[in-house]
């Protein structure tokens, strides 16, 4: 599968203006632009906004195998602040997939520069 | 300080309908209602929405000492799904505060029931 | 059950001189003394030693229900350095227990002072 | 620099029979064999042993720039169990390095197969 997959955009992604594609099983790419309403008190992209970008890629990648997957544990490392108007992109890859659990790593970039790293485990429902 | 602190609500919190108060230094409480536009593909509150609730409490608590604090590393444990229309609340407490770094723990509850746990480190700018 | 539970001390705990007790289901307490062979290049307790103390309490607490539990994801927050000859203690408590996964929080203290915080998820094998 | 760097092996690494080399600044490789005294109650390598392997690589990589670095926050994802007699190797790489903080990712492998993933932040003391 390639190209934008509109049906994969859930309500929260839509509310934040995020778009997505699933390059292949276990993978996902989500992107968007930091709008004024996505900022924090420091005037930069809210941690929750950048996290949601990564989390959305994680959710799409982990649910791409036809088995329902729900987030169990995630972590986010913030490397660089992002400003309003900037375009950010999250790319998820599968690090490990077992029958009951799977691990994903997501890199968040702005113009190719790494701004955050996300790691997440899902619980997978029995096949 | 007690009661709602409107000036503490940043643009992203406002966009998500979140409200906040700072009961004391190093503390914060943030609450909101899960709206239809906050849902994921499974029809429950998006992981990014619940994270943002916790992250907002973390940001308010860590910036309550008059020293600028920015998120470095966070993690989120998801225990129970939350549905549309439900009210959720995040309460942040300071676990440790050093000169350069501080650690916060945030509990997210729905009607008193724990639904997620968040932990976050901030980098603190020199006093 | 109370008091030291020698049969609960696994080979690695024994090699590090750690002792343990299980105050009740879902709980554990592990303690030991930092010996010269537990130090790092900075001359303080090795991060791996303090982690093992916490991880051992996590393993005992999560395996205390009669269902085999194996670690999936853990994190450790280091607050204060510990020196040789000091006694450290880890206390684990259950934050959440589902059928397939459970979450524990462990506090590591030296003379009552918090020196590290550990969080860990286990995968639980079907009952 | 290549080959084993004996002076880099701290007391705890020595106690566990770990060896190390620093291929270049910001990098480290640590390896060892799982001995009977490194096992847990399930008869596999103790989580604390595998963590220490990764943590040692993290410590060497983060201290390789001539600035003292101490661990702040780490996490460990356990993918596969390792048995007694097996050789494991941890390879650390620098994901990000700022003036005050740096982030490392460590992969733990057994015969090339990924068995655990570690991520760690250090606080760096002023240059």
TrEMBL record, chains A, B, C, D:
Keywords, alphabetical: Hydrolase
Residues annotated as transmembrane: none
Classification via InterPro entries: Acyl-CoA_thioesterase_PaaI (IPR052723), HotDog_dom_sf (IPR029069), PaaD (IPR011973), PAAI_dom (IPR003736), Thioestr_dom (IPR006683)
Source organism, top-level taxon: Bacteria
Pfam families, alphabetized: 4HBT (PF03061)
GO MF annotations in UniProt: acyl-CoA hydrolase activity
Residue ranges occupied by any Thioesterase domain in the UniProt entry: 42-114
PANTHER family on file: ACYL-COENZYME A THIOESTERASE PAAI
NCBIfam families from the UniProt entry: PaaD, unchar_dom_1
Protein name: Acyl-CoA thioesterase
């Amino acid at each position: 599968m390639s190209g934008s997959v509109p049906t994969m955009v859930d309500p929260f992604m839509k509310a934040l203006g995020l778009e997505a594609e699933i390059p292949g099983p276990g993978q996902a790419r989500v992107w968007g632009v930091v709008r004024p309403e996505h900022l924090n008190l420091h005037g930069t992209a809210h941690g929750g906004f950048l996290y949601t970008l990564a989390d959305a890629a994680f959710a799409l990648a982990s649910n791409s195998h036809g088995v329902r997957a729900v987030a169990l544990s995630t972590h986010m490392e913030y490397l660089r602040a992002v400003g309003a108007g900037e375009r950010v992109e999250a790319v998820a890859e599968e690090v490990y997939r077992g029958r009951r659990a799977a691990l994903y790593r997501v890199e968040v970039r702005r113009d190719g520069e790494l701004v955050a790293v996300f790691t997440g485990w899902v619980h997978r429902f029995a096949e």
